[in-house]
Amino acid sequence: MDFSKYLKEYPDKDGKFGSYGGAYLPEELVPAMKEIEQAYLTICHSSQFINELRRIRKEFQGRPTPVYHCERLSRMIGNCQIYLKREDLNHSGAHKLNHCMGEGLLAKFMGKKRIIAETGAGQHGVALATAAAFFGLECTIYMGEVDIAKQAPNVARMRVLGANVVPVSRGLKTLKEAVDAAFEDYLANYKETIYCIGSVVGPHPFPMMVRDFQMVVGVEAREQFQEMMGFLPDVVTACVGGGSNSIGMFVPFLNDPVEIVGVEPLGRGKKMGDHAASMTYGSEGVMHGFNSIMLKDEKGEPAPVYSIASGLDYPSVGPEHAFLHDSGRVKYEVATDEEAVDAFFKLSRYEGIIPALESSHAVAYAMRRAKEMNTGSILVNLSGRGDKDLDYVIEKYGYGEKYKDFK
Fold this sequence. Notes:
By secondary structure, this protein is an alpha/beta fold. The protein has 16 helices and 14 strands. It is globular and about 55 Å long. The mean pLDDT is 96.
C-alpha cells in the first residue's frame, strides 16, 4: 500500500478507513455531527485558526516536547537504544491537551457554551477542564466510579479547574460506561454543547479530528530524532487503548522505512474480562457510533474489559488502527499488568521519569524488544506522566522493592 497520499485518502467522504469508521447515530444527532464536520473542515483550512493553535501550543502547552535518550535504561538492557517522546512534559501532563485545545477552539468558533467528555485515567478530563478554563466554557466530565477511586489526583485537578465531575455507577463503572453517559448527555443537549471525544473513536468526524490534532506528536518526534541522530529509529511504538497518542505518533512515520508497533493491555491474561486487547482478541463490530474491532461477549455485545491502566480499559479501538492493522503496516503487540508495573519502576529508578501506567505498556514492550534486537534504536511515545497513578501503585505494589534489578 502506498502511504504517500494517505492523509488525502483516509478517511474517505463517509468517514471510513476501509470498512471501519463511519457514523452510526440516532437520527437526531446526524445534523449535529454534520455541523461539527463542516465547522472543522472550515477552520482547519483557516490561517487564523492554525496560527492561533500554534500560538497556544507554544505559549500555553509548552510545545515542542523533547525527544530524550534513556541512556542508563538502555545500557542496563544491552546495546539497543531507547528514546522517549516526552509528552509527559506537555502542559497538564499528557498528550490529551493536544486535541482538547483544538476542540475548545472549535467549540468557540461554533458558538457553543458547554463542552462535555468522558475520561478513564482522568488525563482527558484534566485536559478538557484546562481547555474549558482557557476558553471560558462550561465543562462536564463523566467518569466511572472505579476510575474515580483509582485516579483521585486527577479528579481533584478537574474540580479545581472548575469542571463538574459526574460519577457513573452502572455496569463495570469504568470507561465504556462513562462514554455511554456522555453520549446520553450529548443527545439531550447537543444544541448548546459539543462532545469532545477523548480518543480517535466515536462517529465521524472525531477519529479524523483527534488524529489531526495529535499528529503534532509524530511530526515533532520524526524531525527531532532525525536532527539528533541523522537517521530515523528502527522501531516506533506507543500504547493503544482507544488510540489517540499512538495514531498521532504513527501516522507521520507511515511512509518511512520504520517498524511501527502498537501495544495493547493484556492485563491479567487472555481470559475474557482480564484484558482490554481489542485488536489482538476482538472482531468487527459497532459501538459508540463507529465500526471497528471490538471485544465481544457470547451475545455479541461489548465484552467486560480490564487493565491496570484506566485509560486503556476500552472494549474497542479507533477505526484507523483497525485499518492500519489489516493493511499490515502497523503491528499490534501486548504487555501485561506485571510488565507495565516493572517498566513503571524501571523508568523511574534508572531515568528519574515516572510514567503513566498507560505509557508504561509501551515502555515495557520497548524493554522487551530492546533485549531481542540487541542493537538499533526504539522511539517510544511516553504519552503521560505517572503522578495520577502513584497512590494506586504504592497501595498495590509498594515502592517497587522487587523491581530494583532487571529481570
